[in-house]
Hints:
Number of strands: 0
Helix content: over 70%
Structural class: mainly alpha
Radius of gyration: 18 Å
Shape: elongated
Distance between the termini: 51 Å
Order of helices and strands: HHHHHHH
Largest sheet: none
Amino acid sequence: MMNQLIEYDKSLFVFLNNLGSPTWDNFWLTVTNTYTFIPLYAILLFLIYKKFGLKSLLIFVVIIALMITFTDQVTNLFKRTFERPRPCGEESLMGQIRFIAVRCGKYGFFSGHSSNSMAAAVFAGLTLKPYYKNLIFILLFWSAIVAYSRIYVGVHYPLDIICGLTFGALSGYGFYKLGKFMMTKYV
């Protein structure tokens, strides 16, 4: 059963990865770049400051730093535990895929880009939902685009993405609850 699931995952990856074209490569390389969305993060922090004030912003910054550290470290733990090679490192896929990323990396289960972007989307979307009701949908869409970029550039399988998004959503929700608790206790 698990072997069949992995084969489906590889087949779906090859299909999705091959939908790419050189025309779109620079766009997806920009999307997958970690630093591309710093302006988005700055805007979200500004919105939090605007709605909650400076003291709350400082608490939120600490919570966000803890959340990103948590998701990143758990992702790395999973990668080292499962040791699932990335598709760009699979000899059997070399002639079948488009690899355009800057580097491949060793292990890919599960995607750190997916988990971190989803955690940030859920956390910020829920935190700001009382003030910006549709923001969460925009952030979830953004997270899905970031996640898909990892397939496009050739470094993650769809299951890596799905598991990363799921873990990120759970982390974002958990840290959102922590943020609410901290706001009632210290602000």
